[in-house]
């Protein structure tokens, strides 16, 4: 099972293609995510980034290709099964449990950490109560980690935008991910919030979590990533450290167009 | 076969409402009963000519549908589906009991102005009433087709069904479309009731089974699919006859429900469902 | 604080037969209680898990018929040559079988509800209840059809101190109902406040997010329906052994509607909601009976439902909760104002 230890590869995507109704979202995409790294997936809108995410995490069926995590095949598995294996994702559109408190949100995230069976719950066994207390303590720890421990009883929907996004990350972290997939985590944030996020990301890294990031914000991407993969129209056009990517002519052409590329070489 | 035609009317009415407005319309059956009761009132109590009472009943059905939409559903724009559902249930309860109060729970019958001698065409003999109902039902189905396919209103309704938000952006007054849709659907239900009421009997709870059968037809034919609803209506009528023969006559009404359950197990979006994008 | 008021309520409810003179009203309370138990179970499905299940009365009726048939004994020709004969069983066993059978149907519906979503599921659930009703009506060999199952024995249990006890009298049935209600409430409360309850609420609120953190949607949908059906079946069985006569009318859609009204007006997704709703819609009809005929009553309920949906969309209990919170905040504000005033006065002197 521990191909990860042997080869250092967490996630391997081979020949991934995603087609809907004649539209090709992703074409023959192959890449790896290595143990402990922060890998960013960038590209213009419609390049296929979120589709790739959805396929990896089981929200979408790949038309062809293979996705393996530490040697185990992910194709066809349901999202909750993939989460159980240690891959947890966030969503492009802010997703929290609106009607629940901040604390409850994280408690839901801790779902997999708990062993309470329905029978034990209904019988009211003392082990259930003990576990609930432990879960609440764990939830508060996570909230402290992201910096949201001030108002645990506040409704998710009542939080300001930046804090909602932090809550999203907290919920994802509660599920104890080994590979965390973040879909546009800083979109809509102001510069101060983005800087805070980068610090949080550094702390997440320090906990041995591998991160796969989809983002548009170049400063964030270049600031946190070990490696960057660039997508355009469903295909990978570049793969390397941030410095190389910034100078890559194909990348410049894809983002800024042919004329700019020719003008700036 | 007359059942097929009238069931189709019921089904088309509901598939439009359910499809375009996404409302679980529990009052549909009550409009059916309303149509029948209007016929009863005009023909038997007020002694109006049968052929005049018929369009009158349908017209009143359309008006009542519009009224319900404006008074009850307008302010529920954007509410979740259970809220609208509950309001519809409340309206259904109120309507049925109002009908019971007004005309008592006793089954009533309506006289039809047709000769009792059936029409004989070669080996087949058809009762005049049944022929009339069948023809009118087909005419109404045809009229609905024309409305949806050819008129501007129909185009707007189809657009709203496909994509609500884009339709709004293109200047279609979705509120008006909702009212029109609900009114039209209710009118069709009332027509079905007005046609079948005289053939069978009229009683306050006749709407309940009608509602459920209408839902069965919608599922058979696919949401918003008028052709599907038409075919579905005939299929249901046929299956009821078959069920009555093979299982037991008491179970005739149950065929619709069995059909629903079986179909939805295998094709969760209906038999002829058009491609619907979810989410 | 919470425990104190709960204990007080319980004591009050336990004391009722001691001072309530009218046996008729006690009967009303028992029936109301039975329906409230069913409403609580529906709340688990409709309120907490967000499943639009409008066929709930099917579980109630299945519980009633199963327990009645088991305790009366039955024989039915399953095929041409094979006849299934079941001798009458003690009521305790019949009850247990009824709960298991209801739970089984709950499991079936639970599995189905995952495939069929939203408004379609509403239709499926209603259809299911109708099919069951028609089966009960037409399979006369098994269920006696419209002629009803008669002379169902009352609940007979072994109790400490009292020995083998027949729950024949109204008072004893009242306590039986109360015991079942309390147990059901406790089971539901425990579920709701646990990881399972959180999973159910999560899949109601944001299913995609729930699955992304590992919540198995099918598993919790099925759990909710099974528990819900089992409790509703228990209520149905209680009903059968109390009223001691059961006919296919028990499956009428109107009873599902009654339960839905109780849950929604009381407050879906709250523990107290169905109880408040149950009491209102169980007792108010009796009060109204004096002044108005049945049709008018139902028109009033219809109107009431619509009004509550418009003005108190979350139901009565949450509305009261908000009002209570508002009152407390206002009081706190005025106390703070008072506290600061004397200092100003003293300062002047």
Features:
heterotrimer; B: 279 residues; 2% strand; C: 349 residues; mainly alpha; two-stranded antiparallel sheet
Fold and architecture overview:
The complex is a heterotrimer of chains A (265), B (279) and C (349). Chain A has helices spanning 3-7, 49-56, 79-84, 102-109, 118-123, 126-146, 161-174, 191-206, 218-224, 242-247, 249-256, 258-264; strands at residues 9-20, 23-34, 38-42, 64-69, 72-73, 87-89, 179-183, 210-214, 227-232, 235-240. Chain A has 265 residues and is of the alpha/beta class. Chain A has twelve helices and ten strands. Chain A folds into two domains: 3-95 and 177-264, P-loop containing nucleotide triphosphate hydrolases (Rossmann fold, 3-Layer(aba) Sandwich); 97-158, no CATH class. The longest helix of chain A has 21 residues, at 126-146. In chain A, helix 4 (102-109) runs parallel beside helix 7 (161-174) and helix 11 (249-256) packs across helix 12 (258-264). A six-stranded mixed beta sheet of chain A has the order 6-7-8-3-9-10, with helices on both faces. By secondary structure, chain B is mainly alpha-helical. Chain B has a domain at 2-99 and 125-204. Chain B is built from eleven helices and two strands, in the order ααααββααααααα. Chain B has helices at 2-21, 28-45, 50-73, 81-103, 128-150, 152-162, 164-169, 174-199, 206-221, 226-246, 254-266, and strands at residues 119-121, 124-126. In chain B, helix 3 (50-73) runs antiparallel to helix 8 (174-199), helix 5 (128-150) packs across helix 6 (152-162) and helix 9 (206-221) packs across helix 10. The longest helix of chain B is centred in the C-terminal third of the chain and has 26 residues, at 174-199. With 349 residues, chain C is mostly helical. Chain C has two domains: 25-264, no CATH class; 321-349. Helix content of chain C is 75%, strand content 5%. Chain C is built from 14 helices and four strands. Chain C has helices spanning 2-19, 23-48, 57-72, 91-115, 118-138, 140-143, 170-192, 195-205, 207-212, 217-243, 253-266, 273-291, 294-311, 316-348, and strands at 74-77, 83-86, 156-159, 163-166. In chain C, the strands form two sheets. Chain C has a two-stranded antiparallel ribbon with strand order 1-2. Chains in contact: A-C, B-C. The B-C interface holds B 18, 22, 24, 72, 75, 79, 81-83, 85-87, 89-98, 100-101, 208, 212, 215-216, 219, 248, 250-251, 253-254, 256-258, 260-261, 264-265, 268-270 and C 46, 52, 112, 115-120, 122-124, 126-128, 130-131, 134-135, 137-138, 253, 257, 260, 264, 293-296, 298-299, 301-306, 309-310, 313.
């Amino acid at each position: 099972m521990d191909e990860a230890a042997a080869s250092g590869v967490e996630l391997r995507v081979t020949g991934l293609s995603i087609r809907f109704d004649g539209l090709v979202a992703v074409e023959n995409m192959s890449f790896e995510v290595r143990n402990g790294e922060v890998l960013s997936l960038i590209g213009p809108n419609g390049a296929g980034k979120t589709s790739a995410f959805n396929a990896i995490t089981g929200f979408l069926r790949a038309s062809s290709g293979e996705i393996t995590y530490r040697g185990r095949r992910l194709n066809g598995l349901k999202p909750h099964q993939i989460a159980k294996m240690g891959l947890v994702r966030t969503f492009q559109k802010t997703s929290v449990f609106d009607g629940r408190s901040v604390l409850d949100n994280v408690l839901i995230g801790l779902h997999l950490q708990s062993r309470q069976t329905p029978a034990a719950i209904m019988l009211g066994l003392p082990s259930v109560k003990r576990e609930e207390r432990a879960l609440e303590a764990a939830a508060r720890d996570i909230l402290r980690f992201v910096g949201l421990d001030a108002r645990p009883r506040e409704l998710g929907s009542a939080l300001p935008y930046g804090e909602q996004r932090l809550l999203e990350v907290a919920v994802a972290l509660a599920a104890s991910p080994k590979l965390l997939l973040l879909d546009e985590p800083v979109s809509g944030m102001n510069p101060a919030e983005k800087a805070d996020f980068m610090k949080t990301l550094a702390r997440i890294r320090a906990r041995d979590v591998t991160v796969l990031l989809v983002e548009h914000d170049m400063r964030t991407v270049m600031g946190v990533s070990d490696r960057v993969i660039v997508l355009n129209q469903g295909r990978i056009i570049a793969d390397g450290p941030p410095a190389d990517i910034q100078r890559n002519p194909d990348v410049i052409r894809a983002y800024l167009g042919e004329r700019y590329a020719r003008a700036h070489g | 076969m007359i059942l097929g035609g009238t069931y189709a009317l019921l089904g088309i009415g509901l598939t439009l409402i359910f499809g375009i407005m996404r409302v679980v319309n529990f009052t549909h059956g009550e409009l059916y009963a309303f149509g029948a009761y209007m016929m009863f009132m005009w023909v038997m109590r007020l002694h109006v000519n049968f052929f005049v009472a018929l369009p009158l009943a349908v017209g009143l059905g359309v008006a009542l549908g519009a009224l319900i939409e404006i008074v009850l559903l307008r302010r529920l724009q954007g509410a979740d589906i259970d809220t609208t559902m509950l309001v519809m249930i409340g309206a259904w309860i109120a309507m049925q009991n109002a009908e019971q109060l007004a005309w008592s729970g006793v089954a009533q019958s309506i006289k039809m102005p047709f000769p009792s001698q059936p029409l004989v065409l070669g080996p087949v003999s058809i009762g005049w009433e049944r022929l009339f109902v069948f023809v009118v039902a087909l005419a109404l189905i045809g009229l609905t087709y024309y409305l949806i396919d050819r008129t501007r209103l129909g185009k707007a309704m189809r657009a709203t069904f496909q994509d609500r938000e884009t339709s709004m952006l293109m200047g279609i007054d979705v509120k008006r479309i909702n009212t029109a849709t609900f009114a039209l659907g209710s009118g069709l239900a009332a027509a079905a009731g007005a046609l079948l009421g005289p053939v069978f009997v009229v009683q306050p709870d006749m709407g309940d089974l009608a509602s459920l059968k209408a839902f069965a037809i919608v599922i058979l034919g696919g949401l918003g699919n008028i052709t599907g609803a038409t075919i579905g209506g005939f299929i249901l009528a046929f299956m009821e006859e078959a069920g009555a023969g093979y299982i037991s006559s008491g179970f005739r009404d149950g065929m619709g429900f069995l059909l629903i359950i079986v179909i939805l197990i295998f094709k969760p979006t209906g038999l002829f469902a058009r491609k619907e994008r979810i989410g | 604080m919470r425990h104190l008021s709960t204990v007080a309520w319980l004591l009050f409810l336990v004391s009722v037969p001691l001072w309530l003179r009218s046996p008729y009203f006690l009967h009303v309370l028992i029936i109301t209680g039975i329906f409230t138990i069913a409403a609580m179970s529906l709340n688990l499905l409709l309120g907490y898990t967000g499943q639009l299940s409008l066929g709930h009365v099917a579980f109630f009726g299945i519980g009633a018929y199963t327990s009645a048939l088991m305790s009366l004994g039955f024989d039915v020709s399953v095929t041409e040559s094979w006849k299934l004969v079941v001798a009458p069983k003690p009521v305790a066993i019949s009850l247990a079988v009824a709960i298991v059978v209801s739970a089984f149907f709950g499991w079936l519906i639970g599995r189905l509800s995952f495939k069929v979503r939203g408004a379609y599921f509403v239709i499926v659930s209603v259809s299911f209840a109708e099919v069951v009703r028609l089966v009960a009506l037409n399979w006369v060999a098994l269920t006696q059809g419209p002629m009803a199952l008669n002379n169902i024995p009352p609940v007979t249990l072994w109790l400490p101190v009292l020995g083998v006890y027949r729950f024949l009298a109204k008072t004893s049935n009242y306590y039986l109902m109360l015991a079942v209600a309390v147990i059901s409430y406790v089971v539901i409360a425990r579920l709701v406040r646990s990881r399972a309850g959180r999973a159910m609420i999560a899949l109601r609120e944001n299913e995609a997010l729930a699955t992304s953190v590992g919540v198995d949607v099918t598993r919790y949908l099925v759990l909710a329906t099974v528990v819900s059906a089992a409790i509703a079946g228990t209520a149905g069985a209680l009903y059968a052994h109390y009223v001691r006569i059961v006919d296919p009318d028990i499956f009428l859609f109107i009873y599902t509607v009654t339960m839905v009204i109780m849950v929604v007006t009381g407050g879906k997704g709250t523990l107290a909601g169905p109880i408040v709703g149950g009491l209102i819609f169980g007792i108010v009809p009796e009060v109204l009976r004096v002044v108005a005929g049945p049709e008018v009553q139902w028109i009033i309920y219809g109107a009431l439902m619509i009004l509550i949906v418009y003005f108190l969309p979350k139901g009565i209990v949450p509305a009261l909760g908000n009002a209570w919170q508002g009152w407390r905040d206002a009081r706190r504000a005025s106390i703070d104002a008072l506290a600061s005033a004397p200092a100003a006065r003293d300062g002047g002197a």
